[in-house]
Amino acid sequence: MTTTTEHDTTDVLVVGSGIAGCAAALAAASEGSEVLLVTKATRPDGASTDWAQGGISTTRDDPESLEEDILEASDGTADPEAVETLVEHADDAVEDVLVETLEIPFDETDGGEFDYTREAAHSKRRILHVDAATGTHILRPFLHYVDDHERIEVRQDTAALELLTDEGRVRGILTDEETTGKPIYAGATVLATGGIGALYERSTNPDDATGDGIAMAALAGADVTDLEYVQFHPTAYAGDDPFLLSEALRGEGAVLRNANGDRFMDDYHPDADLAPRDIVARAVDAEREETGEVVLDVSPLEGEFEDEFPGIAEKCRDRGIDGDAIPVAPCEHFLCGGVDVDDRGRASLEGLYAVGECARTGVHGANRLASTSLLEGLVWGLRAGEDAASDHEPTVVEAPDLRNSDPDLPDRFAAEKFTRLRQTMDEYLGLERTPDEIARASAVLRRLKGEVDAYVRTRTARDLYELRNATVAALLIARAASENEESVGCHYVEETQPTGETADD
Ligand SMILES: Cc1cc2nc3c(=O)[nH]c(=O)nc-3n(C[C@H](O)[C@H](O)[C@H](O)COP(=O)(O)OP(=O)(O)OC[C@H]3O[C@@H](n4cnc5c(N)ncnc54)[C@H](O)[C@@H]3O)c2cc1C
């Protein structure tokens, strides 16, 4: 890695330290490249990967049935070729990286075999897990491994603010390491910045999930696709400070009940409690509206709830939930769309890759199957990292002149505008949307973007850029939603109810 006082250069630059970023860094370094991984996280739990509960899917020597389940859960909208790529490379990636290199202690049966679990819409037990805290058990050793690697430098607490482009090619990023922005030039730039949960008030994601990679890529001119498919998980704790109740709970026997104590999922889908996520989420929402409450009844698990899901059981105790009935409500969880990439993570701009949740590979279509996101991040991270290593030498180009000179910027500006943004997303771009609501969201978000743009580039504060990125990502979601009139998977368009209000409200 060459460093001058003004800028840094590297062969491969990776932005983000979740499973996808770590996998890309590892693969590029294994090919002999010098890798710089920058992450705005200061702790592992800045990445959704660290929060993953249920596990990571394998094929368990039956690739066809995993392919079928992914396509079925997506309502036939997943790209069959992308699904084939995922499934073809799944077991080798899990075996080589997670089992052999990182030695992740996946749960085993008494007989010493892997203890595969099952989740909703999976036709069989094929998911590897560690308790119900699989992400933590994967990410922390992965970060240590990457950090110790001789050809990888990891820089924490460093946010990418913008992509640097020249003649249609991405040349690197501008970071917030200097108050006027610091360029890092790279032969290839891999975005692995995760999802968009922070755009919603109720989300299972960490605060870092502000859609940075998607916004930066779109602003640089890269194609983004399928952004209307925001997945809402059916079972998050319904109270303040929501947390996820993994689908593995239902896979192991927990059931949903409405306020009358009745099970209801049979009325919505033949697979009842194990139906695809979008269907269960809308059913939970409808039953909450009709009866007042939905609970996840974990009594069928008997003693196994505490033993097998200790992290979730602890969160329940922390919230004062006593007994087997946990109040649940849908909650933003995952973005199926993102930066449009091919089977090696290559985006539409030369020199740019995207992997993990910020990318749209086609694997999830309109609705993701449980426990395929960690797998997608791992498989595409490895493929993109390997490909990026064969890319060009870094080239130094002109970087924008950022200033840090706006004393008038109200300190609370970013926080206040973020609140407005989240309210807009919750209200108008939630589980179900009407065309009116989508138009209303677009109008509010356009105004917000105007206000934010007036400040960006006059001040390099990270929260201002996160707000800018979140606003751009939100506008792109609204635009995608407005352009797709068909209700499919996570995108459910209700008929407009006449309200007498205008789209400018
Ligand atoms: C509660 C929860 C449970 C889940 N359970 C499962 C599960 O059981 N199985 C499964 O397959 N999936 C699960 N998922 C989904 C899965 O965890 C995520 O989709 C996946 O981990 C995303 O990985 P990633 O590497 O793409 O992004 P992340 O892990 O989110 O990492 C993104 C990284 O990018 C960094 N970053 C963001 N913007 C910038 C920037 N501008 N500059 C520098 N760095 C930046 C962040 O700090 C972070 O380090 C779960 C998600 C959540 C939230």
From TrEMBL:
Residues 420-497 form the Fumarate reductase/succinate dehydrogenase flavoprotein-like C-terminal domain. Pfam families: FAD_binding_2, Succ_DH_flav_C. It is an enzyme of class 1 (oxidoreductase). GO terms for biological process: NAD+ biosynthetic process. Keywords: FAD, Flavoprotein, Oxidoreductase, Pyridine nucleotide biosynthesis. Residues 11-374 form the FAD-dependent oxidoreductase 2 FAD-binding domain. InterPro entries: FAD-dep_OxRdtase_2_FAD-bd, FAD/NAD-bd_sf, Fum_R/Succ_DH_flav-like_C_sf, Fum_Rdtase/Succ_DH_flav-like_C, NadB, Succ_DH/fumarate_Rdtase_cat_sf. Pathway: Cofactor biosynthesis; NAD(+) biosynthesis; iminoaspartate from L-aspartate (oxidase route): step 1/1. Its EC number is 1.4.3.16. It comes from the Archaea. One of its GO terms (molecular function) is L-aspartate oxidase activity. Belongs to the FAD-dependent oxidoreductase 2 family. NadB subfamily. PANTHER family: L-ASPARTATE OXIDASE (PTHR42716), L-ASPARTATE OXIDASE, CHLOROPLASTIC (PTHR42716:SF2). This is L-aspartate oxidase.
